[in-house]
Amino acid sequence: MKIYDLIIIGVGPAGISAGIYAKNFGLDCLIIGEEKGGLINAAYKVENYPGTFGVSGKELVKKFIAHQKHLKIPFKKEKAEKIIQQKDGFKISTNKDSHQARTLILAFGTQFRKLIIKNIEKFEGKGVSYRSDDNAFLFKNRSVAVIGGANAAAMSAIMLSEKAKKVYVIYRKEKLRADAVWLDRICKAKNIEVIYGKNVVELKGKDRLEKVILDDRRGLGVSGLLVEAGCVPNTYLIHDLGIITDERGYIKVGKDQSTNVTGIFAAGDITTGSNEFRQIITAVSEGAIAALGILNYLNKK
Amino acid sequence: MIYDLIIIGGGPAGITAGIYAARKKLKALLITKEWGGQMTKATEIGNWPGTKMISGNDLIKQMSEHLKMFEIEIKEGKEVIDIDKKGDIFTVRDNDQAYEAKTVIIATGKIPRTLNIPGEEEYKGKGVSFCATCDAPMFKDKEVAVIGGGNAGFATAIDLIKYAKKIYILEFFPEMKGDLVTKEKLEKTGKVEFILNVALKEIKGNKFVESLTYEDRKTSKDYEIKVEGIFISIGMMPKVGFAQKLVELNKIGEIVIDKDNYTKTSGLFAAGDITDIKYEQIVIAAGEGAKAALAATEYLKNKQ
What we know:
The complex is a heterodimer.
Chain A: E1 3-9, H1 13-24, E2 29-33, H2 57-70, E3 75-77, E4 80-86, E5 89-94, E6 98-106, E7 110-112, H3 120-123, E8 128-129, E9 143-147, H4 151-161, E10 166-171, H5 180-188, E11 192-196, E12 200-205, E13 209-214, E14 219-221, E15 224-227, E16 231-233, E17 264-266, H6 280-300
Helix pairs in contact in A: 1-2, 1-6, 4-5
Chain B: E1 2-8, H1 12-23, E2 28-32, H2 56-68, E3 73-76, E4 80-86, E5 89-94, E6 98-106, E7 110-112, E8 128-129, H3 132-135, E9 143-147, H4 151-161, E10 166-170, H5 180-188, E11 192-195, E12 198-205, E13 209-216, E14 222-226, E15 229-232, E16 236-238, E17 268-270, H6 282-303
Parallel strand pairs in B: 1-2, 1-6, 2-3, 6-17, 8-15, 9-10, 9-15, 10-11
Antiparallel strand pairs in B: 4-5, 5-6, 7-16, 12-13, 13-14
Helix pairs in contact in B: 1-2, 1-6
């Protein structure tokens, strides 16, 4: 079996950036991942990737992919299922194949957090969604609710307010923590109502979602509920490798994005890097640093 | 008036810090001598993710235009000469004015290392150059010297091959440090002469550069070569004199930061090539700028 210099697991901004750097250094590398771009696809607008103003998440992903294709960086749309450490490298089994590499960069990011709400599973895909880019989540002239108070929730509320009749933003704390620019837009939108200090405890409806119940027993008639409750790390792959994470499951990395396992580096939202600010530009930067770290490591060997 | 944040520097780190600060609606001021700095000398950048190929000038223009879409005050063409802190407030001075702020991010990058020999300053722009990409065409059919036998010096020589009649590459150490492949490529042109063990003495001339004198460190003999251009390629250095009181420097003069871009002075942050980060890349500098601005935002919030 062919042995790559480097396999990058994850094809979001960190993974693609690592691939660009690795390829430019002449490393024989492969990227494995399921969804090109990852969570950025769900971003309504990206306004803070330097030099690229006001694109949608999907448009920015297209640019990253065009760059990856331009450099002919090999990519396989596969789901990594198991990583085994071998003499001088690693073996990765996917849902379709298996691959070997001397080094790894883990860049498989996070997934949207699910909440424990009565009946929530019953209505997933029937009014309940975790992604604002979900095509099934179209609510023209209807009322919808968004749970959350950070940038993602604020952004989604603005996007939904352009089509929906009414948008409720339900947040468990007393103050939204989204960037000031988003808060301004929420204040200006006439059809957004923010409900502070409340949680959704139950969902009701026949086939589809019809009503959400808050913890003060108030019911809001909505045909859609978007859960924007942040992200949790994807950890299923790393259990057997002995990679050290923090208590929430984020991979602990050094200044050079190295993990505690020799030959494995990590980059992007899955790590504790960049003060945990978890931005597109910090993920891209970490991908570059990890690739430089791998290059140094391979040169020393 | 007291700013929330003053950012010093208009390269990728400073601009990204500005974008993030503006989006947090901080009352921010960015002071810079110029946009871009080092990256303006790069003709082809192929590793800015999302852009297949772009010149340094075009990329920095896109970035500064992005920044200007937000509400942020900008002072262009100003060089900061001093930063001081009294109580919780910083005073930042340029040649004309002083500004006050609660936090400061230093992102002034690096400048080319100089030789510090007689004639260098006097003939800058009159034969002495730090940028082959910018100045090479002016030396058509002329004899030139490249100072520095590392990869930077070799790249400079490659830029000059098309134009210069003869290129001397001068190196302080007993061997060239640049890649062998490039060295062979240069040798093949028949235009390049490598000189080792060089201790430079003086740049001489009239209106423009006419010659360069050096001592052979092995034989202690002095030599003079007739050249009309001298390209200095001995690396980059940080310039932090204006902040020296407030920061800790490492051996090579870079600002020591922790992983969250804090310097030793609370409220003072640094980002990009001027810091002791391991790798110097445009995209890494931008990431560092974002981190520093977000760290400053958190610092301000905790102070409230």
